[in-house]
Amino acid sequence: MQTIQAHELANIIKPESRVFVTGSSNEPVGLLEALVGTGEAVRDTTFVQFPLPGLNRFDFTALNSSVRVETFFMTPALRKAVDPSRISYLPMQMRYVYEYLRRSPLDYTLVQVARDREGQLRLGPNADFFDAVCESAKIVVAELNEGFVAAAGAPLVPETTIDYVVETGRPLTEMSLSKIDPVSERIGALVAALIGDGDCIQTGIGAIPAAVLASLSQHNDLGLHGGLIDDGGMALVRNGNLN
């Protein structure tokens, strides 16, 4: 694991490459900012990401007029890109995204990591496809963010997995709370009435899912399956509604 400065990333990434960038709150913002203005370094490069609406807004198409993007999730930010015609949407379930990335050749993986209280290197708050993209990438570049402490239960990252590391210190990107309007609140209450104790639920993001979770505070022994646990889910965990 070799420590480099952020501006040196442009010397590592070569034109005509295929680069996976972790998304959600684990997006390596410091690495992406280092690519702005590099021009030739990312010529004819394809960036691959599973972005989260409202959280990941980086416009890869603005880096170079030849850059292309592969995404597994369409977001408002992608629609507003400098050139949306260079964005390819690949619709598939998250389980199949993992297999797709594991079998797809990647030149680079850009990821964010942090140290826990014992100093061990771990992933940040998003750990969706890390094993797959590290297996298929030739080079792994990590942003070691000293702005937060990794959770004890986050996956450990062997330092031998990382080729280059850029040290930064910035707060984690936070997702704003969904505003629950009266209509969403009513829908959430109606949906919650259909859910019984011991049921397993799956939710997404937005006002209605938030309203459903907010209406489950009197339920017990619930299970939750989903791509993320937001504030509503955490409230149920802390309240003892979710097991």
TrEMBL record:
Q: Which InterPro entries does UniProt cross-reference here?
A: ActCoA_hydro, NagB/RpiA_transferase-like
| Molecular function per GO | acetate CoA-transferase activity
* GO biological processes: acetate metabolic process
- This protein is called Acetyl-CoA hydrolase/transferase C-terminal domain-containing protein
Q: Which organism is it from?
A: marine metagenome
